[in-house]
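Hi all, posting the design record for the shared folder.

TITLE: backbone redesign
STEP: 1 of 1
STRUCTURE INPUT:
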């Protein structure tokens, strides 16, 4: 995969924490920053999908399905597992 260079500013405290993580993990700063960014973006993406699933569930629940309580319980369990 092709890569590009980005420049950004971080606080001194965050820089020190990053350098500590580099020493402990035996990885390069670039590796840690990329993993952290991927994790954040994946989590944000899942959050958006969960919001949409919740919206659709609420729309469907307005129809008054006979198994509504069962579906609501299952949705809550899935939501709690993901969060």
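Okay, here is what came back for every position:
SEQUENCE:
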């Amino acid at each position: 995969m092709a890569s590009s260079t980005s420049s950004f500013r971080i606080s001194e405290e965050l820089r020190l924490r990053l350098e500590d993580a580099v020493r402990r993990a035996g990885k390069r700063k670039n590796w840690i920053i990329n993993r952290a960014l991927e994790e954040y973006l994946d989590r944000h993406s899942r959050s958006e999908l969960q919001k949409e699933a919740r919206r659709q569930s609420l729309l469907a629940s307005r129809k008054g399905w006979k198994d509504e309580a069962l579906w609501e319980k299952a949705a809550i369990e899935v939501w709690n597992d993901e969060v």
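COMMENT: The chain has one domain: 12-82.
Let me know if anyone wants the other runs.
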